[in-house]
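W.,

You were right to be curious about this one. When I first looked at the sequence I had no strong expectations either way, so I just let the prediction run and decided to look at it fresh. Below is the sequence, 159 residues in total, followed by the output.
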Amino acid sequence: MGFFIGAGVVLEQDGKYVLIQEVRHEKAGFFNLPAGTLEIGEDFTQCIRREATEETGVEVELQHFLGVYQTVIATGSNVVFLVFAGSVPKGAVFSSDEHKVINAYSYSEVTEMDASGELRSPIVKKAIDDLRANKVLPLESVQAWHVEALTSITVEKDH
């Protein structure tokens, strides 16, 4: 059981969608959006820029906010992702120390991967579908403040 909060990005490259093949633990072999969890002191746009660069080797340009996507797993885990849309240059070459397979796939290929159970989560296809349907919000929809303290809020880091 656990609670995971992070960010993901639907990256477009020349009309295709960039997916990475996971390599760790029970998620190994499944395809996913570039994504990851927040680090201490990091906001969502910082998180996804860092994760996308780590997982693809390319700096991304964020263009839109797609929304908040939540997966509640029967085991009790809860995964909340803020998903963005972005692009990478047409000729960008992908590389990562963590992932061996990083490719841009056509929508029909993504649909086939979904049908054959190769996508890590329903969020992958849903976020791509939302972008294709132009269900986008401005990046300014995600607000972050970095402050020294909030006297009215106490966060215990051991939980």
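Here's what jumped out at me. The mean pLDDT is 92. And, maybe more interesting for your project: Residues 91 and 155 are 44 Å apart (CA to CA).

Coffee later to discuss?

I.
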